[in-house]
């Protein structure tokens, strides 16, 4: 009679919870330095201001690099956006946008940053004037964006910085995904602001987790912030009405390593992490 010996079951390891990063101005770095040394992603917000880009930005970048020291995480910036559009059909307006974004990339390169957030040009999907569908000129609109970003994308590729295109007033992910996909470049990826998606959900758009699933492999970056579905409040997670378990379940299903950036006041970061950590969603 043959005796069968039980074999040890092969139990797959439990994946580590996603590691959260944060956005902040460089002035907040001294209070966040210890927290960042865990290798968390960091997004600096200085370059949104023309006051930085029109001043001695090289010296400013050098001071930040010195302040960061041996920071081990992935570094990025939020690019300039006030008054700019990447869907500028007027060549004079386009030139201003291109110059600003190029200067943002130069600032990013001086920092050693590897992503720069820029804003989607699309408005409320379904508006009679800006429907953004194939039958209402989406292809032409994408062509205008290419005219604006052609030199910007080339510069991003040369300095090793990925452009993360963020949903702002987009009600539907389809136009933004079509735009990002049209570049056929790993230097252009989707950024999902879950708070913006939540605002648009209250106006008939899909939920933030639906946005994540739709983006799939194009997803490179998220802004994590909460709100009540009424205003873009940038509350810490747990203060609003976003369904955070669905957000992180979608992230787990999609996979990859998108940058998870808490875009909330620096003084709220620790409490935001505690909420998501206590819920076993992130760390």
UniProtKB/TrEMBL annotation:
Q: Which Gene3D superfamilies match?
A: Divalent-metal-dependent TIM barrel enzymes
Q: What is this protein called?
A: Sugar phosphate isomerase/epimerase
Keywords for this entry? Isomerase
Q: Which InterPro entries match?
A: IolE/XylAMocC-like, Xyl_isomerase-like_sf, Xyl_isomerase-like_TIM-brl
Cite the SUPFAM superfamilies for this sequence. Answer: Xylose isomerase-like (SSF51658)
Q: Would you say which domain of life the source belongs to?
A: Bacteria
Q: Which Pfam families match?
A: AP_endonuc_2
What's a single GO MF annotation on this record?
isomerase activity
Residue ranges of every copy of the Xylose isomerase-like TIM barrel domain listed in the record: 55-278
Species: Deinococcus koreensis
Q: Which PANTHER family match?
A: BLR5974 PROTEIN, HYDROXYPYRUVATE ISOMERASE
């Amino acid at each position: 009679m043959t005796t069968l010996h039980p074999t040890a079951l092969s139990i797959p390891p439990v994946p580590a919870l996603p590691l959260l990063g944060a956005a902040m101005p460089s002035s907040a770095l001294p209070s966040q330095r210890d927290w960042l040394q865990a290798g968390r992603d960091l997004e600096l917000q200085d370059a949104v201001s023309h006051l930085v880009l029109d001043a001695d930005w090289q010296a400013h970048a050098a001071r930040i690099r010195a302040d960061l020291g041996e920071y081990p995480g992935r570094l990025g910036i939020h690019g300039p956006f006030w008054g700019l559009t990447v869907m500028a059909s007027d060549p004079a307006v386009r030139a201003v946008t291109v110059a600003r974004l190029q200067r943002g990339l130069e600032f990013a390169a001086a920092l050693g940053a590897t992503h720069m957030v820029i804003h989607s040009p699309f408005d409320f999907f379904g508006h009679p004037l800006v429907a953004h569908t194939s039958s209402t000129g989406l292809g032409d609109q994408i062509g205008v964006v290419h005219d604006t970003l052609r030199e910007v994308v080339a510069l991003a590729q040369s300095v090793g910085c990925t452009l993360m295109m963020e949903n702002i007033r987009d009600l539907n992910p389809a136009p933004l995904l079509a735009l990002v996909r049209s570049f056929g470049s790993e230097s252009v990826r989707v950024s999902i602001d879950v708070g913006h998606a939540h605002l648009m959900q209250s106006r008939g758009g899909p939920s933030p987790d639906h946005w994540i699933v739709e983006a799939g492999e194009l997803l490179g970056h998220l802004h994590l912030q909460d709100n009540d579905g009424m205003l873009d409040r940038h509350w810490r997670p747990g203060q609003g009405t976003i369904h955070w378990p669905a957000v992180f379940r979608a992230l787990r299903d999609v996979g990859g390593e998108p940058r998870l950036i808490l875009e909330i006041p620096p003084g709220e970061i620790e409490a935001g992490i505690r909420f998501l950590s206590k819920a076993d969603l992130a760390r």
